[in-house]
Amino acid sequence: MKVAFEKSLNNDPKCAHYLSLYLDELLRKRLKDMTDTEFHSNVDQVISVFRYLIDKDVFESYYRSSLCRRLLNSKPSAANVEEAEKLVVGKLRAECGQQYTSKLEGMLKDVSLSQDTSRSYSQSTSTSRMDGPSLSHCELDVKVCTSGFWPTHSPPKCEVPIEMKCLIDRFEAFYLSKHSGRRLTWMFNYGTADVRSRVGRNPHVLTVSTYQAMMLLLFNSSDALSYERIRSSLNCGRGDDASVDEKSEQGDDAEIKRHLMSLYVNPRVRVLLRESPRESKEPAAGDIFRVNTQFESRVRNLKVPLIALTSSSNNRDGPAGSSSSGNGGSAIPQAVEEDRKHIVEAVLVRIMKSRKQMDHNSLVVEATKQLSQRFQPTPQLIKQRIEHLIEREFLERCPHDHKTYNYLA
């Protein structure tokens, strides 16, 4: 029965993705209506299925992407979020070892350190004078993420409005004064903002993305703005690097369109009104946008959900740089396949460094044994990485037996 279940589970690599999606939904429900006993029981069931997965690295890649969204979107006061995440990561570490969960633990550590940094920053701003436009009414909560741990995508380049620029400059000065030699890159595509709206009869607090907040701030000085004006004001998709390719430029433009469309296509949170001669819902040159002065809602605090464009919705739940490999319809993300090459090479070098000399079959067996906790490598993959290590002069073939390898110090 166990053999049959394991075989059926691993027939489709998408099972690792589906299991990560179920665990993501489970961790989100933890914040709402699930008791500790129910949560622990469900997590144990997930781990029981996880043990039968062969492609555990595929699961880790998808789980890391969903963990990124949960940690960055959680409120600072949600202490039980971190406890639940630590519980799951601890169970994964018990199954696969510390190396498997090193990036996940690094993400949790970053969030914990960011909370301390935010408290120190708040104390420093409360005791010093705030320079800049209306900074006394703004609060900033920053999560400082180590680039090697987080599955981040490159954000579209944009010009930050002066209201936000002053806050950013102030935090950078504070942070770099305590951590010299570091460099901060602002990932606006992962941020959110609470914007106070005074349109209509009742004021509202809109929870929007950082890009949407930038767009809404433009309407403080204008009643109507064209699509071209919004793009030029934010300088979307442009940067100092003139070598940005056309594909990257189109991706940036699609991302900005997605954030702008979310402000006017949903009737429940239609903050903006669009005037366009076209029937298409996507914004384009010639469109005019105005603030919806008739906007009303019984709820004071509103969240503006982001829509998913058809062209970019296929991989929105996948890890950074993910795509199907094309090898017979494999669902293994390309980023995972690239990581596997480096992992196999590292294991081969570690084995040969300790053994100094091994024949081909023994090396393949030993490498497969050590890699089985993450994934099941094919003999062809191991052979390819051996050839690559020989080209890079980490290994050499024995002069008297070409099926035996020597380690080169």
TrEMBL record:
Which key words tag this protein in UniProt? Isopeptide bond, Ubl conjugation
UniProt-recorded Gene Ontology molecular function terms = ubiquitin protein ligase binding
Keyword Cell division part of the UniProt annotation? no
Q: Please give the SMART domains that the UniProt record associates with this protein.
A: CULLIN, Cullin_Nedd8
Q: Which residues form the Cullin family profile domain?
A: 14-235
Instruction: Give GO terms for biological process.
Output: ubiquitin-dependent protein catabolic process
InterPro entries per record? Cullin (IPR045093), Cullin-like_AB (IPR059120), Cullin_homology (IPR016158), Cullin_homology_sf (IPR036317), Cullin_N (IPR001373), Cullin_neddylation_domain (IPR019559), WH-like_DNA-bd_sf (IPR036388), WH_DNA-bd_sf (IPR036390)
Provide the residue span(s) of the region labelled Disordered. 310-332
Keyword Ion transport tagged: no
Family according to the record: Belongs to the cullin family.
The protein depicted here goes by the name Cullin-3
